[in-house]
Structure prediction request, 1072 residues.
Amino acid sequence: MMSQRPRRILILGGGFGGVYTALTLEKLLKKEIRRGEVELGLVSRENYMVFQPMLPEVISGSIGILDTIAPIRRLCPNTNLYTRTIESIDLGHRSVTATAGFGSRQHHLHYDHLVLALGNVTSFAGQPGLAEYALPFKYLGDALALRNRLIHTLEEADIEQDPEVRRALLTFVVAGGGFSGVEAVAELNDFVRAAARSFRHVDAREIRVVLLHAGGLILPELPKSLAEFAQGLLMKRGVEIKLDTLLVGATADSAVLQGGERIPTRTLVSTVPSGPNPLVAMLPLKMERGRVVVDATLAVPEHPGVWAVGDCAYIRDARSGEACPPTAQHATREAQCVARNIVAALRGEPATPFSFKALGKMGALGRRSAVAEIFGFKVSGFLAWWLWRTIYLMKLPGLDRKLRVATDWTLDLVLPPDIVQLKTERALGVRREYFEPGQVIFREGDRGDWLYVVTEGEVEVVRSSEDGEETSLRRLGRGECFGEIALVSDRPRSATVRAVSASNVLAVDRDAFQALFATLPPLRSFFESLIATRTR
Amino acid sequence: MMSQRPRRILILGGGFGGVYTALTLEKLLKKEIRRGEVELGLVSRENYMVFQPMLPEVISGSIGILDTIAPIRRLCPNTNLYTRTIESIDLGHRSVTATAGFGSRQHHLHYDHLVLALGNVTSFAGQPGLAEYALPFKYLGDALALRNRLIHTLEEADIEQDPEVRRALLTFVVAGGGFSGVEAVAELNDFVRAAARSFRHVDAREIRVVLLHAGGLILPELPKSLAEFAQGLLMKRGVEIKLDTLLVGATADSAVLQGGERIPTRTLVSTVPSGPNPLVAMLPLKMERGRVVVDATLAVPEHPGVWAVGDCAYIRDARSGEACPPTAQHATREAQCVARNIVAALRGEPATPFSFKALGKMGALGRRSAVAEIFGFKVSGFLAWWLWRTIYLMKLPGLDRKLRVATDWTLDLVLPPDIVQLKTERALGVRREYFEPGQVIFREGDRGDWLYVVTEGEVEVVRSSEDGEETSLRRLGRGECFGEIALVSDRPRSATVRAVSASNVLAVDRDAFQALFATLPPLRSFFESLIATRTR
Prediction:
């Protein structure tokens, strides 16, 4: 049945779509793989699959950090895993290029069948300041970063005297009232309120948790009565819900709403829908809203051997004719269908069209409450929460994870939340920042180790006289820099710098500056003469 | 007894010395703290204390990541915790300056009593390449970074064809045969050998784990028979032990030994003794081997109100007259003694001199084996391991941690090791690299996104003709750069670059380059003309 050369099936993406395709293929082609007639490959940026529904629980630490994710190698032991970033897809030559790992060797992977399961990506395009200051919530790293931010702001609030700064530190804003926003705000709210008890100088009544939602009622995916239950419960637990509200931008210490209102905050989480994966968007295929259009059998028309599933595919249900929603439930079933159809293609059998009716929808609301619609029944409160836990525990791949999560959940019933701040990131030498018109970048007298370069916009350098009057020293535009004196002396800032128009700047820290600039002769002489002029 | 203004006791450092000082003071001064007569403060870079003896277990994941650390706030609920880096200590004005957190405000803390418990720091001075390529093993972040490196090298080896590159990927070198080096190599060895089973194309027999030790027998702190037992056991489990061997340097893909031998490796862990904390070294106090000399009561002579404990203090035992070793056992007892002496000073009572005889020493050897010397008895094998676990579990501060660790250990008996690679660091835009004479920095035909600037040494650019003959194009020295063409085009490297002498270079990635260099006019014109000249 099979030819001499092994048939190569390559899956791109390590989410539900990709991993379940590999899992199903391993089962269906067990013999062929063992005989070397078929080779399975999967390319994923991470060596694990994130179990998205449990990600919010990482915030409160009620699940062990590693327990919401499952190693792909263990799930698919007979698939070659390439833990690499994909660089390009060449449909003409039937090959995929993955970036280099250690050293500088690229990987070129050839295929007979290709499954696109690349999902979508977080995109903050068109919202100034969000890329710099908003926290996304999609990957495990995001959940950890958010958890650390929450603890960090509590740490700072505990020793901060200035009431305005305290207010921003103790305000937490989540944008997006869909499932992921609601689950994130529920866990965040529970966690900061419980953790605050360990901080001597933080009063739980100072804490403000805000959920921004563009529509008139949160959880538009659910029936009205369940959404209303969820909304009421969150409000009772102290979440302030702002309906019909759109987030349009962010600064380092505020969320900017449509209409101009600002909420002072140091923690802004954005869970708003993400954009198409640029790798997919670049393919010369028929697209619909950034997704690859496939036929009823999940094959890409006019490209035999190319298939697409999950959030990166535009799929119409064969029975209902409706577009399939981008959920894990659907991705899993699409993966099983595509695997069967690939096997059918290898064996010269006919393909099956895809059809699936969602079993239900569930959203956790924190502290033993949830909402669920299962087989048409509406459930809310403790029973829904119990269902939520039980169903997801069953769905969690791998027995070891099931055991670990069940144990975590049991311990969590009796133990206080963990407030350890896990700093693993090292500071970047160079970072991008964004400032609104009128916003102060730094103040006279501040300490500062950063040099700034204007990349867009205009800023103004001002100095105050003793009677409080301000003199404008100079205005700086694109390509000009300020704050350089702090890099050669230990003195505080000698002037205040403020954005005149909306400005993007690059901040370079002392280490990066000294390492880089001091060794490059053209830069060294440039800065020496600049400092000489400005300090004269 | 006490005066009107609260007496301020400030503790610097969040290790065993600092935390146990605060713990003991909270107990002894319960009433005074409640009445506002005494204020306790503790400054620590992290908001948790690392329970060092369990750190190696983080490598294998047999303990949950957060379970080897305890939140200081929970341990010392009546102490004001400042989670900040200390910038300077001013003994004359009795004040300490801590760095800014969010925003740019420094904290100035005043004290009546000051306890120095700052420990020591990792220092790679004098060993070229170690700062760039060796992995330290002291903080929780180090253990996580090592764990990720192990998984990353296995991931790469699994898809690597070149036998030389594979060899370096599958060789793991630990330098230092003291307690921490031995415990680290034991866990590392167990973990990589167990994890390798999940990698389809890695054969456990390809794995090489090497321990470098400067002396003739590992574990010099223990009696000879125990050290020999440990050495034999590690060797039986596949660890190659190189005695009388000194690590003198490192490159990206090798460990350099005294005498010139190189071990090709992508994972070099260095646990060799660390240097004095620079903050302590700068104090105008009497020092002995980088530590602050204290009297028998742990007070710093001629500076009333200043005390020192732990690894940053040079303490002679009041009874034996011997210098106290830098161990957790001693730090804990020193902390309790200094707390009692501070209370005595506040109450005008006499101070007690410090004396303590170590109860014993223990070292874990992985997989249910250990060596221990307790009250003079020598124990090895399973019984020592059982003692090790039991004693450390008892010592672990906080009931919740005890429960979590006991659970982890139980699960670990039945579950396979976790092989999830947890990437939390983002790539730095600028990094330092070191190359030995003759070492290739990149090869013609390689892909590369980095621009290099020579900060020290000399490099040579060569191109090969079709018959394999090499032509030297140019030599570059300090302040000159190479590899810039890759930043403006997508083509592979057009030449090979090799270090002529020992060279330090800065590598700048494409993002940092484009962001920074493209906006600064002097740099832009410099690079435009450079590229024009070199591509002519």
